[in-house]
Design goal:
Layout: E1 7-11, H1 19-30, E2 36-40, H2 44-53, E3 58-62, H3 63-68, E4 74-79, E5 87-91, E6 103-105, H4 109-118, E7 123-125, H5 127-133, H6 137-142, H7 145-158, E8 163-167, H8 168-174, E9 180-183, E10 206-211, H9 225-240, H10 243-246, E11 249-256, H11 258-267, H12 271-277, E12 293-301, E13 308-316, H13 320-338
Helix pairs in contact: 11-12
């Protein structure tokens, strides 16, 4: 060990994004083969300047930190394996078992719409709304973000609310006593009757940031190329969306083994996936083309959660960028069609009902009251 170069990994106290715990575990794991030293600094701004000054070699940060702070002259050496990006409901009961008119707090607009799609009878409130109703709005606004989550848990334990929706990393950091119920992608055959929650983009990523020119091969064993690919694709998809769509659009990208995909498809009797990936005339039904696949999902909803526009695509890794571009094109074309009023036409199309030729309001209305 003494003959190996020591690498100093900079981090900050837990900021509710899971990065602090993630990098600590990575250092514990890979430190057995590498000379790694983790150094905690009080603020992200301080950590960035320390990295620039050469006092540290690597800085761990979230995808949102990379966007928010001045990262000029720095570069992303790679990413750790992605942590689960789905959000959770902190409540005594699963979302489908909540009683009618249960009060659930959620401040993210996409998750609010997805929750309305699943349980339109649940009363969704904002944290500020709950604080205002209790006469504690000024106190609530004075709290740090980390303290607000603890305040919400106290309201749940008091019975003021029945639950609240939070990023999974928040639940992991604060260890709430309330049970955690995943608002997930519902890939398991036992969850096929539950609504799917495609999460907001860029959650669960831990970026390892370095000065330009850093030799990334020094930390090759820590890096996960599939997570880096997912990060690049999700970032590109999010940046391609209009500003008014970003807050209400779920995006998820993941590279998966072909064997895992086929196993799940057989368990769920998903003939569409099996037909696309296997040769039905061969008894073994092996994949037509070996190698992992990149799965991409995107969805958005109207405010009431009654109408969803969604697209999916699965491609081989080398076609991931083209697949992403085509998926976005399909998604935006779908939204254009669904948000356009259907004008009346005199033309009768064979096989279509008469109502098809009549005028109709747009299917998807983002401005609904």
């Amino acid at each position: 060990m003494e003959n190996r170069e020591r690498l100093v990994i900079l981090t900050t106290p837990s900021r509710g994004d899971g990065v602090r715990l993630h990098v600590e575990r990575a250092v514990d794991t890979h430190g057995k083969k590498m000379d790694l030293l983790m150094k905690q600094l009080p603020h992200m701004e301080t950590a960035i300047e320390t990295l620039r000054d050469g006092t540290g070699d690597i800085l761990a940060m979230s995808a949102f930190d990379w966007q928010h702070f001045d990262t000029s002259t720095l570069s992303i050496a790679g990413l750790l394996s992605r942590k689960e990006p789905t959000w959770v409901l902190v409540a005594d009961d699963k979302p489908e078992y909540l009683e009618k008119d249960s009060v659930v707090v959620c401040d993210h607009e996409l998750l609010r719409r997805q929750m309305r799609r699943m349980r339109p009878d649940v009363l969704l409130k904002t944290s500020a709304g709950i604080a205002s109703a209790a006469g504690d709005l000024q106190m609530f606004q004075s709290l740090e973000e980390s303290e607000r989550w603890s305040w919400l848990e106290e309201q749940r334990k008091k019975g003021v609310i029945d639950g609240f929706i939070a990023p999974r990393a928040i639940h992991s950091d604060y260890r709430f006593k309330g049970r955690r119920h995943t608002l997930g992608l519902q890939r398991d055959s036992s969850e096929q009757n539950r609504e799917r929650f495609i999460p907001p983009p860029l959650h669960g990523f831990t970026l390892l940031v370095t000065r330009e020119g850093f030799n990334a091969s020094k930390i090759q064993g820590m890096l996960d190329p599939s997570a880096h690919l997912a990060y690049r694709l999700e970032s590109a998809m999010m940046e391609s969306l209009d500003d008014d769509l970003r807050a209400i659009t779920g995006i998820f990208v993941e590279q998966r083994k072909i064997s895992t995909i086929l196993k799940k498809a057989r368990e769920n009797q998903d003939e569409i996936v099996l037909g696309a990936l296997t040769d039905p005339e061969k008894p073994t039904k092996k994949a037509l083309r070996p190698g992992p696949r990149v799965e991409m999902m995107v969805e958005t909803l109207n405010a009431s959660g009654t109408v969803t526009a969604a697209c999916e695509r699965m491609v081989v890794t080398e076609d991931s960028h083209v697949g992403m571009v085509n998926l976005l094109r399909e998604f935006m074309h779908l939204i254009t069609i669904m948000t356009s009023d259907h004008e009346a036409t005199k033309r009768k199309i064979p096989g279509m009902p008469d109502a098809f030729s009549e005028a109709a309001a747009r299917l998807l209305d983002f401005d609904e009251n």
